[in-house]
Amino acid sequence: MARVTGRRVALTPARRAIVEVMHLSAGVPLVTVERAMDLRGLVEARAGRPTPPSWAAIFTKAYGQVAARHAELRRAYMAWPWPHLYQADQSVASVAVERDHGGEPCVFFASIGSPERHTLAGLQAALTGAKREPVEAVRHYRRMLRHAALPWPLRSWAFRWGFHRSGHSRAKNFGTFGLTVTAGLGATLETLVTPLTTTLTYGPVAADGLARVRLAFDHRVLDGAPAARALRALEAALTGDLVAEVRAFNADPGP
């Protein structure tokens, strides 16, 4: 038998943060619904721009529009001090962003309030900043790393306190919905693990506009039919006024 050697590798603060998010996700009964969408109008509109908006910016704004009209997508299951639902007045998007930190690729979460109220140029600027600004310059990233640097069990308590103490705290610190994708790498996330009520993902958008879009949802808050209708409404948003906004897209968000 071959002799196996190796060494221990310490968890970086960013990796410890993901571990804590996964602990928060462990008790969430997630169900996933999928819809095949025809986004050829957006494909053609993006092809007509020298610097088109990213699909992440487009999906974030579109889902924000849907959540603004459907209150159940802004709700969260709260177990303390007794089981109830908290309904936020506005959405907060939590967009997964890969950054290099401490010499390794790490996942951070860009927080964008009321994404449906932003222009696509403004959303794109926010996401570009979340990818390029120094990690320590992004307030949400700094808070995540500060909590992750605490020794266990203080670290676990800090994450759980921010998540469970109130619906307002959860929306502020973790968001009301998530977006996480690997489509840019040619891959599709088949299974999502998330502590949020809804998290959106999509696969690579084909040249003919066909895209597989998935929504993972907390079954304590939503049932399958409302989740399926949310995806139908999302396709309507993606094939509606957003097409014209993409055609007129200017990468400079202005003053």
Model description:
With 255 residues, the protein is of the alpha/beta class. It has a single domain, classed as Chloramphenicol Acetyltransferase, CATH 3.30.559.10. The protein is 39% helix and 21% strand. The protein has 9 helices and 8 strands. The strands form 2 sheets. The chain has a 6-stranded mixed beta sheet with strand order 1-8-7-6-4-5, sandwiched between helices. Strand 2 and strand 3 form a beta hairpin. It starts with 12 loop residues before the first helix and ends in an 8-residue tail after the last helix.
- How can the largest sheet be summarized? 6 strands, mixed
Oligomer state of the chains in this structure: single chain
CATH superfamily: Chloramphenicol acetyltransferase-like domain
Structural class: alpha/beta
CATH fold label: Chloramphenicol Acetyltransferase
